[in-house]
Amino acid sequence: MNVNNGLPLVQPRIAPVLDPDFRPAVLANRAFRAAAQDDPKALHVGLALDQNPTSISHFHCLIPSQGASPKDAVFTYVERIVKFLLWARGGYRLHVAGPQWLADRLQAHFRDMPTGRFDSDMVCQKMFDRPIEVLSVRELPPEKRNAAPLGRHLDGCRIGFDLGGSDRKVAALVDGKVVFSNETVWDPYFQPDPQYHFDGIMDSLQQAAKHLPRVDAIGGSAAGVYVGNRVKVASLFRGVSPELFKSRVRDLFMEIKQAYHAVPLDVVNDGEVTALAGSMSLGRNRILGISLGTSTAGGYVDAEGCITTWLNELAFVPVDYNPAAPKDEWSGDRGCGVQYFSQQCVGRLLGPAGIEVESGLKLPEKLKHVQKLMDQGDARARRIYETIGTYLGYGVAHFADFYGLENVLILGRVTSGPGGDIILTGAKKVLETEFPELNRSIQFHIPDEQEKRHGQAIAAASLPVLK
Predict the structure, then answer these.
(1) Could you tell me if 51 and 311 are in contact, meaning their C-beta atoms sit under 8 angstroms apart?
(2) pTM here?
(3) How many domains does the chain have?
(4) Whole-number Å distance between alpha carbons of 145 and 383
């Protein structure tokens, strides 16, 4: 498939060995921009996304004139960018400095289309407490950015935890030295009773507390969006009813804080802690952390070593523009990051790789099976990791259009073992071949096995400031 609703797609020079129909977003976007640059009547489109009066982000692009490109192609190009901005940066009010029809069609998309309604509900309504607004404007409001230091506090007796979709990790630290770390398998996604989540988290904390003379602070890393330690949106609680979410989940970490006598407690999106862990271990900034776990977590540390108010929810950003790309089970949209950088991707590629597993086997067990085959030198397993590496190379090039990047840290359960090195090699090969300018400016990093499995919990422990 070489077109998506009128938008021309570009076949990659390096095709994923198990997915020849992959059509990278970055190549389609760059080709469309190049066509606009060659059009003397091209139009400039400015996009501004508001989170609040002190956080407004900009994005600018050129679109070909109407005679040079059909409206469907222009809309598809801009809508995919807007979706990326919503999930990567976050906000509720979109200013469009461009043709009136484009703003009108974007508003209709978020109102009428199932995928648009999902994005509006999850990002705008649930995270920012209001539906999306699309405004057609002549000029964009001024860009404003909020950034703040994150973590790096290691004094005292601390517990850090990391809540994933297939396991929860915990670490105990005394003045920055790890005295205990552990991980426990759990299955939180579709549990209807929040008590399951509460009991699991408390169990991990109690395991760590046994190795400390006292507990001075607790830091947490978890998939989702957290504001003031309150849960706004989190895939970990997908099975909980809206009523129970409001009455029990929203303040779950407040409840846990009280159980530990109100010691300082901070819970942050796992992607941000991924980036923090990378920045702490590498001593570098301008770093994008990507965790390939049950889902896909992303986080960004800027040039000053601070985090911004951006969401960095890379699980939902479009990376493949093939209209027949894999569908995300939650949003219903196609080509989103979670299907390319997670255990879900490993499970999806089992069939193309020719690997059979028992019916009903869960994603963590599927990954373990692939990792076991990889340890045995199985070529089929190797092709899965090679495919993910190619995905990652094109994905990072795409992310570089939205982030100022110098360093990319990849970690998470999918990268454990020799498969992680294969992923990294594949990603580098893509940059060397397709994007030599990025290959010169971006460095990939992969932590050692201990850091991969427990680095997030350790970085999370550094979040709170002691009283």
Answers:
(1) no
(2) 0.87
(3) 2
(4) 42
Shortest CA distance to 181 belongs to which of 448, 459, 454, 464?
Answer: 454
Identify the CATH number of the domain in which residue 450 sits: 3.30.420.40
Q: Are residues 211 and 79 in the same domain?
A: no
Confidence band of 196 (pLDDT split at 50, 70, 90): very high
pLDDT band of residue 413 (cuts 50, 70, 90) is confident
Structural domain contains residue 32: no
Q: Which of 120, 145, 170 is the last residue of a domain?
A: 145
Are 223 and 358 within one domain? yes
- Domain match, 336 and 396 both: yes
Flag whether 349 is in a domain.
yes
**Above 90 in pLDDT, residue 365?**
yes
**In this model, does residue 322 exceed pLDDT 70?**
yes
Q: Which tokens sit at 457?
A: 């919990």
Are 180 and 172 in contact by the 8 Å Cβ rule? The answer is yes
> How many whole angstroms from its chain centre is CA 363?
18
> Domain range spanning residue 441?
146-467
**What tokens were used for 148?**
């703040």
- SS3 letters across the chain: CCEECCEECCCCCCCCCCCCCCCEHHHHHHHHHHHHHCCCCCEEEEEEEEEECCEEEEEEEEECCCCCCCHHHHHHHHHHHHHHHHHHCCCCEEEEECCHHHHHHHHHHHHHCHHHHHHHHHHHHHHHCCCCEEEECCCCCCCECCEEECCCCCCCEEEEEEECCCEEEEEEEECCEEEEEEEEECCCCCCCCHHHHHHHHHHHHHHHHCCCCCCCEEEEEECCEEECCEEEECHHHCCCCHHHHHHHHCCHHHHHHHHCCCCCEEEEEHHHHHHHHHHHHHCCCCEEEEEECCCEEEEEECCCCEEECCCCCCCCCECECCCCCCECCCCCCECEHHHCCCHHHHHHHHHHHCCCCCCCCCHHHHHHHHHHHHHCCCHHHHHHHHHHHHHHHHHHHHHCCCCCCCEEEEECHHHCCHHHHHHHHHHHHHHHHHCHHHHHHCEEECCCHHHHHHHHHHHHHCCCCCC
- Residue 453 pLDDT grade (very low, low, confident, very high; cuts 50, 70, 90): low
Closest C-alpha among 360, 391, 387, 385 to residue 370: 385
Does residue 43 sit in the same domain as residue 105? yes
Q: Binning pLDDT at 50, 70 and 90, where does residue 273 land?
A: confident
Residues 236 and 275 in one domain: yes
Retrieve residue 251's tokens: 């303040």
**Does residue 22 fall inside a structural domain?**
no
What's at 119, amino acid-wise?
D
